[in-house]
């Protein structure tokens, strides 16, 4: 007995630097070096959760008091567990258990395209100079304000190559449709028939199924 504290001969391995961690294909990192929620799909975020945990859960097994809790508490716990990649059953991006979670790239993209296409569909057929200015300001703001930096930069390049047509409803609707189709092609998705863009976003189908 020397009275000196014993020195441990083993040390915990230091976490691997971000650049050295294995990432799913197509994973986009944010400025903080972690996967960007607005830039990646929920599927990729779940794949990366083991390499980039937000914070470890307190326990993987519920205590007796939690086990006897309400159904809403159980749902909240399940949603939290999914964020840490603890659930083996994949959750869809629109799963109600994730209604309190930040939007992933797919949710953000759908919401943004829905707003833009709908705004274009209700844009005047013969807009005033002020209306044209405001629509152009809206579209030009996206490369700066859209949360996914990678997507925003690509849109900025596309807008320089093919400037928006804000001279009327038909022009801006077609411009957005063609821009959306360009994105769909890059993602391996089908093109949308731009001749039907007002039917899709304003009038609804002729069979009245949306009335």
Automatic annotation (TrEMBL):
It catalyses: 2 R'C(R)SH + O2 = R'C(R)S-S(R)CR' + H2O2. Its cofactor is FAD. Its EC number is 1.8.3.2. The keyword Oxidoreductase applies. One of its GO terms (molecular function) is flavin adenine dinucleotide binding. Pfam families: Evr1_Alr. Residues 1-35, 48-74 are annotated as: Disordered. It comes from Calocera viscosa (strain TUFC12733). Residues 1-11 have a biased composition (Polar residues). Keywords: Disulfide bond, FAD, Flavoprotein, Mitochondrion, Oxidoreductase. It is found in: Mitochondrion intermembrane space. Coiled coil: none annotated. Residues 101-201 form the ERV/ALR sulfhydryl oxidase domain. The keyword Transmembrane does not apply. GO terms for cellular component: mitochondrial intermembrane space. It comes from the Eukaryota. InterPro entries: ALR/ERV, ERV/ALR_sulphydryl_oxid_sf, ERV/ALR_sulphydryl_oxidase. This is Sulfhydryl oxidase.
């Amino acid at each position: 007995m020397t009275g000196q504290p014993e020195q441990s001969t083993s040390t915990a391995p230091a976490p691997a630097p971000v650049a050295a961690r294995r990432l799913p294909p197509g994973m986009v990192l944010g400025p903080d070096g972690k996967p960007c929620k607005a830039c990646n799909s929920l599927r990729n975020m779940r794949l990366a959760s083991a390499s980039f945990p937000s914070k470890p859960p307190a326990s993987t097994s519920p205590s007796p008091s939690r086990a006897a809790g309400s159904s809403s508490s159980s749902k909240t716990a399940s949603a939290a567990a999914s964020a840490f990649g603890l659930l083996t059953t994949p959750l869809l991006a629109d799963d109600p258990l994730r209604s309190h979670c930040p939007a992933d790239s797919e949710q953000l993209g759908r919401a943004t395209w829905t707003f833009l296409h709908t705004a274009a569909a209700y844009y005047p057929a013969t807009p005033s100079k002020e209306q044209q200015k405001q629509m152009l300001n809206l579209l030009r703001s996206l490369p700066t304000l859209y949360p996914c930096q990678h997507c925003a930069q690509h849109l900025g390049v596309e807008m320089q190559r093919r400037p928006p047509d804000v001279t009327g409803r038909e022009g801006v609707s077609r411009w957005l449709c063609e821009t959306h189709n360009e994105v769909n092609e890059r993602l391996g998705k089908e093109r949308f028939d731009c001749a039907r863009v007002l039917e899709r976003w304003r009038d609804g189908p002729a069979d009245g199924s949306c009335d």
